[in-house]
Amino acid sequence: MKILFYCQHVLGMGHFFRSLEIIKAFSSHEVILVSGGPPVDAELPPHVREIRLPGLAMDADFSRMHSLDPAKSIEEVKQERVELLGKMFSHEKPDLFIVELYPFGRKAFRFELDPILAGIRRGDLPPCKVVCSLRDILVEKKNPASYENRVTSILNACFDGLAVHADPSLVSLDDTFASMDKITVPVCYTGFVTPKPRPGAGEKLRKALGIGPEEKLIVVSAGGGKVGAPLLEPVEKAFLEKAPANWHMHVFTGPFLDDDHYERLAACSNDHLVVERFSDDFLTWLDAADLSISMAGYNTCMNTLAAHAPALVLPFEQNREQLMRARKLEALGALEILDEAGLSPDQLIPRMRRIIEKGRGKTPPVNLNGAAETAAWAESLALNGSGDGC
């Protein structure tokens, strides 16, 4: 079976890496990853090839789209993308088309998606099943009724199924989407999508770093990094001023943190503080950590659960998504929530010490098998025409 997986990440890396984890689970099929956001350095498995559309991205408050090629206008890039996507679809003839987020989000990209979806339904393009791949929580909208009417209209007319990457015992789509009763296509709650740590990988990393059992490793991260400075800078400051001598901190800023902020953070590096852009083995770092400090994006939260790492999170304030997720996980005892007032050294260091001393608690009963369950369900839908069994 051939699968075309469309993922457009516009600010961070979370959408890309969640999609990549799902794609890995389709290991017995040929997968074409269609992306078009800022380049991400990620190794693709042998059954996957990536086709990049001319790049587009959004600013930090999602108010403006811009071309990643300064020599090309938005309209030029859009036209190129429409033509490339249409030709690609006709040439590749996929059996399954998976669209990440749309129509629940990525409205700014309907210029290229709507023609493909309409072409499939009219028979102008090769026939295939179409599935929406959706995370757990939707951001709030100014006009919810109009938004939900548009979403359900497109979903019911152009899609064959909806995969919600959540465990409904923790987060249900109707928490943030009131029109579930209007959805007529099959809906599958797949569980959350995250890789799992390799057995013993965290312990092996600690040994490689020379961190003994009486020493503590704090891993600090900010996803893609574009909005990470308000977390990274005060955490580093607190560590430098008041951390005990047996603590070690490793900071992953994210590849999209601007150079000025990165250089300021990296300038403070010492034997106990290391600053890097990115790790392609982030889960092993969490498995090794005595404490994770991060924002509260989907991927980092689920990575933290998978690694069973004690965690402090500072939710991104632009919308409700991260705070809502963090509160649900805090209620399970999986993490604790920070706010900006709690980032001062006098408040942060004692809180870090308390959580580190408490250690790892019980693993919350949350389904983290979302990638495998997505692949199994979508495969059944594409090959058998049925979304049953989810």
TrEMBL record:
GO terms for molecular function: hexosyltransferase activity. InterPro entries: Glyco_trans_28_C (IPR007235). It comes from the Bacteria. The keyword Transferase applies. Pfam families: Glyco_tran_28_C. Keywords: Transferase. The keyword Transferase applies. This is Predicted glycosyl transferase.
